[in-house]
Amino acid sequence: MSKHPMDRRDFLRNTVAGGVGFGVLGAAAGEAMSQAPAANEGKVPRKPLGSTGEVLPIIQMGTCQTMDLKYDRRLHRCFQMGVDHIDTAQMYADGQAQKAVGVFNKQIGDRKKLFIATKVYLGVQEASAQRFKEELDKCLHDMELEYVDLFYMHMAHDERYIEPEFIQLGEDLKKSGKSRFFGFSTHDGSVPRMLTKAAELGGGIDAILFRYNFRQYGNVELNRAIDAAKKAGIGLVAMKTLAAIPDDSEEIVPFRSENFNLVQAKLKAVWADERIDSICSQMSSVEHVMENTAAAMSPVKLSMDEYMQLHRLAALTSEHYCTGCHHICESRVAGKLRIADQMRYLMYHESYHECESARKLYDALRPEERDFDRVDLAEATKACPQRIDIRERLAKARQVLSA
Ligand code: SF4
């Protein structure tokens, strides 16, 4: 069964028809106080990013992939479609992605025409304001830029990242002119806590990039956290919106729609949540860029039937998708085993085909964070809300990532 049940020409034809759909994101989304995206003639609509004063496309190009250092067609096609917000990170493709963004900036020839965000990962033990400043300098050097528009502390899963030292870091970066805005990215079960804490600060965090997708509707804690962050004026950027599982598992549940393929429907489901300002999407081909931007430009909303199909897909495949709620499983095992991280790296390998970076991340785990042979996983497996066979998945991660 194809993942793309209709060809692009059919889809593009249908997107101009217009129509009305049904949003079923729940009460919190319905009460969102954000603005609707502004139409943008033949280009992707734009929306304010929190209280930054920036009005950015509702989809941005994610570069966690190998980019073309000479002429990246995806970046150029994005730009043509109005996607001028580029998201990169120091660690993507071993630094090659940042370099490609630098080349692309030169080809565009006007720095002000791009909104460039980058991220630096420093583990919670080694993180310091000084180290982040040093690493940002390296990023700027690699991209041959004088400044980035947005600097994120990458994979900030601990409240330490929003202690005064780091909030001051954001202020310092802005004063020095090296970054116009400041925030963090966060993936796992820490998302509700990190969003809530950032909102409580009452300033200092301009934007948060966080995992959010159709599998998480009905998560009351997450919805409250998103509401709080929105109310605090923090720009909210969703990532991992496809909530991908291995192709051979997802494709056994066919998606039927006259308007959208499954990927487009997943994006539309996130855009339907008006609290979300933008989606960071890793578009791996020009065709993928065209599909995603067509979905962004389409005024057609998802129908109730399409939402229900997504719900059904989420329910049927939940055992294949780890939601990252590490506090549930990791608190039920002895030692320092990092279950959610291993599951995430396995997802990078199986679903996003980022095999090299998945192996590197897996390799960076300490033995006691990785080795599970002597660990009793029974209670953790019993408690897992996704009913994942944890031992089987950790074994799979070791098999494919430790090579
Ligand atoms: S394995 Fe289950 S409990 Fe652990 S992080 Fe994943 S979904 Fe949550």
Question: Can you offer a commentary on this structure?
Answer:
With 403 residues, the protein is an alpha/beta fold. It has two domains: 22-303, NADP-dependent oxidoreductase domain (TIM Barrel, Alpha-Beta Barrel); 322-401, no CATH class. It has helices at residues 8-15, 27-30, 73-80, 96-108, 129-143, 164-176, 191-201, 220-231, 247-250, 262-271, 286-297, 304-316, 326-329, 339-350, 355-364, 367-370, 378-383, 390-401, and strands at 38-40, 43-48, 55-57, 59-62, 85-87, 115-120, 148-153, 179-186, 207-211, 235-239, 278-281. Strand 5, helix 4 and strand 6 form a beta-alpha-beta unit. It is globular and about 55 Å long. Mean pLDDT is 88; it is low at 1-34. Residues 322-326, 328-329, 339-340, 343, 384, 386, 388, 390 line the site of iron/sulfur cluster (SF4).
The assigned CATH architecture of the largest domain is: Alpha-Beta Barrel
Shape assignment: globular
**Ligand types:** iron/sulfur cluster
- CATH topology-level fold name of the largest domain: TIM Barrel
Query: Are there runs of 5+ residues with pLDDT below 50, and where?
Result: 1-34
CATH class placement of the largest domain: Alpha Beta
DSSP strand (E) fraction?
5-15%
CATH H-level superfamily of the largest domain? NADP-dependent oxidoreductase domain
Tally of domains: 2
Radius of gyration over C-alpha positions, nearest whole angstrom: 20 Å
Percent helix range: 40-55%
Q: Classify the secondary structure makeup into a structural class.
A: alpha/beta
The main pleated sheet reads as:
8 strands, parallel, barrel
Span between N and C termini? 31 Å
Q: Please tally the β strands and state the result.
A: 11
- State the order of secondary-structure elements, H for helix, E for strand: HHEEEEHEHEHEHEHEHEHHEHHHHHHHH
